Amino acid sequence: MNQLLASSDPLFAHGVTGVVLLIVLIKVLIGFAVIMGSVTIMIWFERKAISDMQSRIGPQRWGPFGLFQTLADGLKLIAKEDLVPAEADRFVFKLAPYLVLVPAFITFALVPLGGTMHIAGHTVMLQVANPPMGILLMLAMSGVSVYGVMLAGWSSGSKYPLLSSVRASAQMISYEAALGMTVVTIILATGSLSTHNIVAAQAGGVWHWNIIRLGIVPFVVFLIAITAELNRPPFDVVEAESELVGGFNTEYSSIRFGIFYLAEFMNTITMSAIIVTLFLGGPAGWVPNVPHLRWVFPILWFVAKVTFFCFSYIWFRASLPRFRYDQVMDLGWKRLIPLSLGWMLIVAGFLIAPAWGFLMASLVLLAWIVLTRAFELGQGREGGTRDAVLPTVGERPIPGRVIRRFTDGEQS
Amino acid sequence: MAKLFDFFGGFKLTLAHIGRPTVTNSYPKVKRPKQPRQHGRHVLNRYEDGMEKCIGCELCAGVCPANCIYVRGLDNPPDHPVSPGERYGYVYEINYLRCIHCDLCVEACPTQAITESKMFEFSFSNRSDAIYTKSELLVDDQGFPQRLPWEDWREGEAAMTGGWMRATSPAGDASFEGVVQWTADLGEGIRAPEAGQSENRDDEATGSKQLRTVFSRHLNPEDVPLDQRGLQGLVSSVKSKLPHRRGDKS
Q: How buried is residue A348: exposed, middle or buried, by Cβ count under 10 Å (0-12/13-18/19+)?
């Protein structure tokens, strides 16, 4: 048992003593404080940045530049009436927010925030935990948080949250596959599941970072898929205000709603941190030779990279309109999954030998051509306009056309 | 390929907006300058000698579409007349729960006794406060509207309340532009004619500003008027901030 622990974390090399337990406890507390503090700042930052992009002012009343706005909102939410709808499944309704919140914490625990430190003769990693299954736990937790969203919508006993939860589960399943496939690419290149080893494998300059080493494609696929996982714009069909009132959390009020809100932003930070860990070398970066302060610079690099991705999520939200639901499905199933699968095969081939790589690349190219033709024929089957080998099934009910059928009595 | 980069045009636009000035004012702290003809709560004006302009003719009450004005006239007492005419407004009440600020009363008034100030920021916690009586509507001894405790008066807002809704150019007749068509106000004297299209107008005295000048800070760089750009614009904006509002009660 001790050996298993020590193999993943050098802190347990001398057995589990009181000091070690204290260090672990302190790490957990610091991790909790860091994520909670950064979430309050993130909410403020998002509101401020998006209002700048929309020529507004944003929060400004509480504290300097409105920094305490999140605290004020939290206090307000706590003070509000906690309402459980009469039709709700009470136990599940109350459980659901925690199913969203806890995975966000656990995922953040996996992220290496910096290098290692030496405290009281122990080697301490600057990450809360480094389990051997590492990145698989991240995938599992993002799966669990879907349960939170889905059960929240289902247990509300209301139709719009239910629709939203159905959308959430479908969307998560679609993008989880592409997400998993890119993670597999990284695991193949690294040869380890633990986040610490993934970061260690990227040490030694920008050219070793996975974003460049694996080609830009896995990074782009991962970024898109993770945006969809997070239900952030432009993939926020789950909480599309114009279609679903407020989405799965429509019936929630008071601090339960606050927990959903908190978890959403916590997930944004956590997933930015995961991207940085997987593709941008985590805390890797140039470290000046300053005595006693060398451990600070990796943390600063990490924070800078995470901030960049948090900002880019806000930027997406300000720039991109929401996808239609069928477009979300199209992008997930027809583009991202084949792309990530094909790229994984190519990377796997090159890891064995260049000859295998080129063989894989040509096979993937062939598959790409076949798939493109298949999609084309499928489209023809839908529209009935192009050469259809299969009998046409009629067009997809695009909302505008359905409405026109009602208003104009147009025959289709 | 060009189409691919078009996709990023939206990102470029949102990023460019970060640097642009915001159009929002932090309202209760900062107020936008009000237009010279803003319709606010009414005032009852007085002549320069202190006599009331209202003659109790009830034309305002008759024309009011919301039925919010109640007037009763009375013969002037011969030993201490209130207005220069035969009769004066003995009771004058406006119910601001009903008033729609259409200014038809101002148009109807033959003596410019009732005009509108620019004050619209008033609210009451009591229905009886909503009915302004003559003692509240009448201008004070300096000729300025009374500042009631539930009204939010700021610097410069009390100016220019009399003689405004008498349009400079009645029925669009350009020959009346720039011609004074109103009587003197208490404290203010005869007001300069309002800005029209004619040359003989006094923008300085009336406080009229072109909208383009007022909002030049919020325009795209290419839409800013020439005299508001660059160094010249800096000088003129500093000039406009200097205290020059005459007739303002500090």
A: middle
